[in-house]
Each structure stands twice: as structure tokens, then as C-alpha cells.
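#structure-requests
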Amino acid sequence: MVAGFIGFLVGQVVATVLEALGAALAHYPGGLSALAKASTPPWWANALGLLGIWMGFAAAIVFAYREGRLRPWPDQWRPRASDAFYVVLGVGCQYLIDAAYYPFHFKSLNRPVNHLFAASHGGGFIVVGLMTVFLAPLFEEWFFRGVLFRALAEGTHGMTRRSALVMAVVLSAALFGLAHGEPLEFAGLFALGIVLAIVAYRTRRLVPSYLTHAAFNATAFVMVIHLRSGH
């Protein structure tokens, strides 16, 4: 659990360092300070930021498996034909969460999407899109469900198994939502985190939660493409 928090913090530091290097190499006006304040940063800044965060996640995963008592689930990354269901689940989750937010008409709800894609065009748009759809779910599922959720569910003493499981689902989902740093989107991400934790627990694998997460992100990405097309 501690390794998870350290990995997250390390990821933030590495992301900042990579963004600073990118700003210097690209001669970005104002440097890192201006880049941090930009509402629509260039695609390379978003890509480097994501890469840095994932490096921290990867370090925490390796530490948890090598130095901690955590052991991977058997066949946790082996796909099955029945896993196609989780693609449908991910798409459904995206539409359900969008429907839940719709009555409130939050004008700033699209800010994270604009932050990622507004200044991305051509190849940069494709790179950030692929990273968001395929790589972000990979590292996040391995970190939040494969390490944090399991550490909470299996390493809690003085609690019944059921209580530890409930606590692990809720806390890992809350951390997942908070890690995105978007207060307005927290409720939706928290709900998604609960679904992903339950999927991972019930299947004892990470492929199902990964596919659910990837389909969720892919649906949002398709919506961005649809809006850009002007339809």
C-alpha cells in the first residue's frame, strides 16, 4: 500500500521532469511554468506527462511483486473469448455516467477532454488518443486493481473478509477518482472504479477490468472525434 502511494508521487515528479525537458527542447514560450498553466497544452506535453505517471505506476507494481507479499493472479493477463462482454460493459458505463451528469449541465465537465485533445491535431491527436484508450487503462488497472485493491483486500488485519473487501472496493475506487485530479468528474470516476474493482475481484484477472476501462475511454475518444467532425 505504501509502495503504491510512493509510486504515485514518483510518477508525478517524473512527469514534471519530462514535461520540463520537453518544454526546453521545444523552446516552449514561458517554459514549464507557462506549460503548467496552459488550458490546452501541446500534445507532446500531455504524452510526456502520462509517460511519467506510468513510470511511477510501473515502479510501484514491480516493487509490490518483488519486495512485497503480493503475487500476481494466475493468468491475470490471459484473455478469454467471453471477455468480449466487458467491452460492452465499458461502453455502457460511459453512457450511464454521461446520462447521470446530463441533468446538471456542467459547463466545465469537458475541461479534461479539452486539456488532452484541444491542442492536438494530426499525428499528435492519434498518439494521445492511442495512449488514452490503450495504455492508460493498462497501467491504471495494473496499479489500482492489480496492486492497491488487492493490497487492501488481502493485507488488512483485524477485519472480516467481507469488511476488508468492501473497504478495498470503496477506497481503491476513491483513490482512482482522486488520482485524476478532476473534482467535477470524481463521482463518475468513483462509480467506474467500483465497477472495475468488482470485475477484477469476481474474475481474478485484470483483462476484464482492462477491457472495461479501455472501452470506457474509447467511447469518450469516439465522442471527441464525432464533435470534431462537426456532426
